[in-house]
Structure formats: structure tokens, C-alpha cells
Amino acid sequence: MTVVVGINMSNHPETGKPTADGGVAIAIDNVVRYACAEERVSRLKYDGGFQRSLRNGMDALGITTDAIDVVGLVGFGQQVGAELPSYLANEVRAEVGKQARLVYCSSHHEGHAWAAIGQLSLKDALVVVIDHSGSVIESAKGGLDDARVEQTSYYLWRDNCLKLVSRDHDAPGEIGYGRFYSKVTRYVGFGSYHDAGKMMGLAPCGARERIGLIPLAFESKGGRETTAVTDDVYSEDGLVDLSIWLRDHGSTHPYLKAWDFGDITAEGADLAAWGQLSLESSVLRRVRPLVKEYAPAHVIVCGGVALNSVLNGLLARELTSDVRIPDSPGDAGLSVGALQFALRSTGNELLSGFTPYIGRQYTADEVQAALSSLHSDDYMVVKLDNPISAAADALAQGQVIGWFRGRSEFGPRALGNRSILCAASNPWIKEKVNGFVKKREWFRPFAPAVLAERADDYFEMGGSDSPYMMKTVFARADRKHEIPSAVHVDGTARVQTVSLEDNADFHALIAAYERRTGIPVLMNTSFNEGGMPLIETPGDAVKAFVSFGAGMDRLYVENYEIRRAN
């Protein structure tokens, strides 16, 4: 038995402290057996550690540190080509023991590429890596200041070889797609770059006619994409440079002043739309010639910006090659990249058996322990012979349910094992979920989960699937009135196509709901409290259900139904 562990170590190169999105993946004899983000176990959003998810995985698989043969590591912010810093090696050794061989992928972007290859198992692809910042390419001062840093990289994966073919936005002070989108996100009133998804949801609310007053931020020069917005003007919040650029290019918003946090205005929505359009236009303009030059069978988009499902949907519609997005394209998926990189070092192996449903399976005793925490006078707990049928009945009656079943999903999306579900046909139910369950902004859209075999009936799929909720497509004009809560203001939806092969239980639930209502679509959103990671354990599910109060009508944990007594 050969045990290989992949770890994403997101330690800051100057402080040595974890930054965000740590996690662990484990393969036994080349087959992925476990993968989990640290935040799911620690319950700390964006946790950059790895220790708890490692112990969780080892417990789940019944292995000890003595069994670990190789440990792959992917870092952040270190020098490309440099050796693994000793303090990081010591930190890993403290958890995995001294016998395992450490293999270090010093390029953050190469780690993203390997993560995508490991998750998708494709043989020929152009891999587009887009994020905020990766590893240091070159630095005169030895740190992040005035350094060339990975921001946008293009790899060709062909003939079992990964080759870097081009880079953009790597000059000192240059702003790439991730940094640009982050600045606009914070400028219009959101708290941090982690809120980029909120800006994507806000963008369709902006007035398209106003966008034309501000030129696009990116332009093509010599085959590369560049931007006039730079990091040359320092400010603590990083927004002075964007403010100057906007003033010089027609913005009427007060010079050198970003919106106050949480103050989302109509003008902010216009700028969100401008930022989204700038991103889409530039990425398409850059990738299209690369597709023509290399003629790949697939285009893989990964890195943090690959969480922009609107961009992904555009690329899928416009490019001649098949566009694929791994289920965990951001930094939280880098543990699989570290795993794949380490396996290559053992003999050019590629991962097999990867599925998003690869977290821990919880036992009947663990479920019982969680349910026993409920006060019997306040809650009714019933063991069911057919929880799928019972849940379908509740959904058909217009109820909001929590759905906890099987192994937890790897990645940022709830794909039917840790989900909040309700009828997509109810136009008001998304207000209930936004206001009383998720407690989030009104403009945030919800995703439809649709039977894969019926997806084309409701959405313009273009002959492709979307199993990981990573592409935005248009709802069909003659069907969108049937599922109003799952269609955004611009007529689009971030679809999850659910097949029998991918998730038999979730497919059965949607099919049972269709038999009752005639509609093969449910509204699906992540099962978590506001600002918290996706739930992981049965105890997390019960705690969230209690916290939601009347916002959630019923909870299904494996074969149990939980409802309030009154």
C-alpha cells in the first residue's frame, strides 16, 4: 500500500503565518480517498492551516503517520524554483513524521494546474490559471514588494507533459485579473476580496448604458493583456490607484473615496458591471488566440478567478474547445494539486477515482450523538424508511429543507450532500432563504439543481454539462417562468446538472420531486450559517438547523427527519 498526502500550505512568505484556504488530500495506491478544506473541520472561514483536516482524513481512512510514504506541498508567495523553507518543512514533519519523503511544488500556479488535471483527468488541454497573486517569479528585495508575481499563467497539458507557454500581468506593480476584480469589489462597498462572488451577483443589476462611459480596464499589447490601473500609488486599502484611474476615465464618484463598507448603491452596481465586463472581454480576447494556436481538446480554467461562473459561461459559449472547470478551482483545491504533483514524482502517475463527494463518511453513532443534543420537547426526530420520498413531499409542499447525506463535498459549492433545498417554482422563497436563513444581500442569486437529462429543456446548455455549479448559462425563455427563484435578474442561472452516475441519491430526490410537481429543478444553496463554512458533520447540521429557527422547516440527516414540535 502506497499512501500519498497532498497539503496546501498557504503561509505568508514574510510572516510565516497561514493565510487562507488550507487543506489536505490523501491517495492510497493512486486513488483519491479523501479531500477536505481545513475550514470545514476547524469551522474557521478561510482557515489556512492543514493539521485538523489531516487528522480528520487519517482517522476516516484508518491510517497512521507510519503509513505515509510521500507528502506533496504547494506553497504561496515563495520564490519559484526555491527549496522548501525549513520552517515549513518542520511544521509538516511535526504532523506526518520523519519517514515520509517531502515533495515541494514551488510554483503556486503550477500547483493550480496540477489540481485541475488531478480533478478532471483530461489528457489534452490549455490550462488557464487566473488568480490574485501566486508565487514570486523574481524579486530584487527578496519579498513581495516590487516583485514579479504570478497572476495569469497559461499551460499546455499534452503528451503527459505540463508546459508553461505564456504569462500576463507579471511586471512589478502590474494588476492582473484577480487583483483588479478585488479592487473593484472593495471599491463598490464589499469588505474584502473574498466577496468577489457578491460583486459578480451585483453586476447584472448595473445599468449597461452607463458602462460605456468608462473604457475597459484591459487592452491588448503585443499579444499580451495589460491594464492601465497599477499598484504604483500606495494606500493602506489599495484603492487610491483605482480611484485615480476612475477619475481620469470619466467616473463622477468623488475622487479618492471608495464606497463605505456595505453601502451598495446604483452607481456601485454600474461599476460592478463595468468590472465584470472588463474581465470577460479581456480574458476572452487573450484565450481565443491561444486556442487557435494550440488547438487543445479542452480549455481548463482554474485559480480563484475561475470561481467567476459568469466568465466561465461566456468562455464555454465563445470558444471552440470544450471548457471545463474543476469542482474546486481556487486555493482550497490546491491540496489535490500537491497530491498530483507528488504522485508524478513517484512515476508519472495520474490520479484516479476523483469525485467531489470525497469528504468523511459519518457513522450511525455520530449521527445519533448529534440528534441527542436536541431537546425532545422542542423537536421531533423520526427515523424514515424512505427519506428521499419524505423530503420530496416536503419540497412539493413549499418547505425549505436542510439535506445532509453521505460524504461531504470537496470544493466551495454544495452539490447535494450538504445543501439547503427548496422549490425553484416559488418566486418568493428566495427572499425567505436570503432573509431568514442565509441572512445575505437581496441581489445574491441561487443556483438551480436540475436532472442532467432534463437540463436542456430548461437551460441553454450548448451540449455541455455543468456538474459543479461553475458555469452560468441562460434559462430558456419559455421555461424560466417555471423556476423564477433560480433565475437571476439577467435571465441567467449558475446551473448544477445532476446525473445518476455523479450522485444517485440527489438525482433520486430531484426525480421524486419532479413526479410530484412536473418540474425537474430544485433551488440549491450551501448548507451553512452566514459567514461560516459549509457544514461538515451531523452536529454542524443540527446546530445550523436550530440557529435558522423558522427559516428552515425540516432537516434530513441521513435516514432521519427533524422538525420543530410546535
What does this structure look like?
This protein is of the alpha/beta class and 566 residues long. Helix content is 32%, strand content 21%. The protein has a nine-stranded mixed β-sheet with strand order 15-23-22-16-17-21-18-20-19, sandwiched between helices. Strands 3-2-1-4-5 form a five-stranded mixed β-sheet, with helices on both faces. The longest helix has 29 residues, at 266-294. The chain is globular. It starts with a strand and ends with a strand. The mean pLDDT is 92.
Mean pLDDT: 92
Characterize the biggest β-sheet: 9 strands, mixed
Cross-sheet strand order for the largest sheet: 15-23-22-16-17-21-18-20-19
Specify Rg, calculated over alpha carbons: 23 Å
Q: Give the CA-CA distance, first to last residue.
A: 53 Å
Q: In short, what is this structure?
A:
The chain has 17 helices and 23 strands. It is of the alpha/beta class.
Write the layout of secondary structure elements.
Layout: E1 3-8, E2 23-28, E3 31-37, H1 38-42, H2 51-61, E4 68-74, H3 86-96, E5 101-105, H4 108-120, E6 125-130, E7 136-139, E8 147-149, E9 152-158, E10 161-168, H5 177-187, H6 196-202, H7 208-211, E11 218-221, E12 224-227, H8 240-248, H9 266-294, E13 298-302, H10 309-318, E14 322-324, H11 334-345, H12 364-371, E15 379-383, H13 387-396, E16 401-404, E17 418-423, H14 429-438, E18 447-451, H15 455-458, E19 471-474, E20 492-498, H16 504-517, E21 521-526, H17 538-548, E22 554-557, E23 560-564
